[in-house]
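User: What would this chain look like folded?
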Amino acid sequence: MKAKFITLVVLLILPLFNLAAQDFLLSQPWSATTTIAPSFAGFTGGGRVFTTYRNQWSAIEGSQTILADYDQYFHPIRSSFGGLISYTSYAGGMLSQLQFDVQYNYAVQITKHWYFRPGLQLGVFYRTIDPSKFIFVDQIAMDGTILPTSSFQTSINSLFRFDAAVSVMFYNEYFFGGLSVSRLLGNNISFTDAPSTTDPLKLNVYAAGMIPISKGYGKYDPKDDVTIAALYQWQGQYHQIDVDIMYHRRYFMAGIGYRGIPFYSPDGLTNTDALKIMVGGAVAGFSISYSYDVSLSSLVNVSGGSHEIVLMYRFMEKAPNDRSFFCY
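Assistant: Here's the prediction, encoded as C-alpha cells.
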C-alpha cells in the first residue's frame, strides 16, 4: 500500500514542475472552439454563450478547469468579437491559473464557396503556486508520516502576465482547417530564482469535415451528419492529437474519440492519454454535452478517468451574408 502511495505521489508531483508551461486541455474542443483559436469566435453565424467544467483524474486530486465564453458574429461588418475567461487548479490547488482573453476575427471571401478568417487574441493571466501543498519523495517516512523538506523554495508565489495569440482558418459549408499560435510574448513564468522559465509557444493545427447523411427537408425529417475532426496541439515537450468522430441528428449527438500520441513518450513518461466517449442533446438553442475519458496510461487503475460537461446557448443565427457556416 505504501509503495503504491509513493508511486502515485511521484507520478503526480514530477510533471507538476512543467504544468506552468502547459495550458489546460479539453476533451470536447469542438464544443468550446474559441479555446482552440480566435478564428472560431462568432463561427456559429450568430451569438453564443457557453460554460465548460472539466475534472481530470477525478479519483485523485488531478486538475479542474472551469471556463465561460461569449462570442458573436456581426453580419454587416463581417466581424466577430468574443471574450473568454478560464480558471484551472492543478493537483488540488498546488498550482492555479486565472486567464481572461478578448478575441476578434474578420471573414474574407476568397471564392464563391471558400472563406478565410484571420483572428487575433489579447489577454492576461494570473498564476499562483502553494509550496505548502507539495509532497516530495524525501518527505515520506516509512510509516507514512509527511516530513518537512527544502527541496523546493519559491521567491514569489504569484505572477501576472500579458498574452497574445493569432490564428488563420479556411472554411466552406462542409470543411474547415487552420492553425493558431499562442503564448506569443514568451513570458518568464518562473516562481524561483533559478534561470528564467520561458512560457513556450503553443501551436494548434486543426481540421474537420462534415459528411451529410440526410438533408432534413421537413420538421419530421431531421438532418443527419457525421463529422470527423482532428486537432494537433504542441507546447514545449508536450504533443497531443485529438481525433473525434461525431454523429449529429437534430436534438442528439454521440461521439467517440482518442487523445494522445501512440508510441511517443516524453522523458520516458507515456503520452497516451485516453479514449473519449461523448454524448449530448440540444433544443431551442440550448445544448448540453458530456464526455468521459477512459485513461489508457499507467494511471488507469487509480485516476478515475476524467469528466467534462459543456452547457451552451446559441441565438440570432439568421442566414449570414457569407454563406451558411459549418459549425457545431
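The chain has two helices and 16 strands. If you want, I can go into more detail on any region.
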